[in-house]
Design a protein that fits this description.
- It is a single chain.
- By secondary structure, the chain is an alpha/beta fold.
- Helix content is 45%, strand content 17%.
- It is built from 3 helices and 3 strands.
- Strands 1-2-3 form a 3-stranded parallel beta sheet, with helices on both faces.
- The radius of gyration is 12 Å and the shape is globular.
- The mean pLDDT is 96.
């Protein structure tokens, strides 16, 4: 079965490595625009190098101000979120 997410705009938390990064790869391959967050700047840099077009924000989802900043950055970069 082929997954299609063409035109969708996706946020993935903890997306700098591991399962989060794998999910980002699947959505990008299916045509979605993807913005990830992580608390590790090194993971974010590696993820962006590996996946051109990936948006990324340093954010801890346990901190409300970081979540607000994450959504502001993702919406500005992708024009909204699905």
């Amino acid at each position: 079965m082929e997954l299609s997410a063409k035109g969708k705009r996706v946020i993935i938390t903890a997306g700098g490595s591991g399962i989060g990064l794998a999910i980002a790869e699947v959505f990008l391959a299916a045509g979605a625009r993807v913005h990830v967050c992580d608390v590790d700047d090194g993971f974010l840099a590696d993820a962006r190098a590996k996946l051109p077009g990936l948006g990324a924000t340093h954010a801890d989802v346990g901190i409300a101000a970081d979540v607000d900043r994450l959504f502001e950055a993702a919406i500005a970069a992708m024009g909204g979120v699905d």
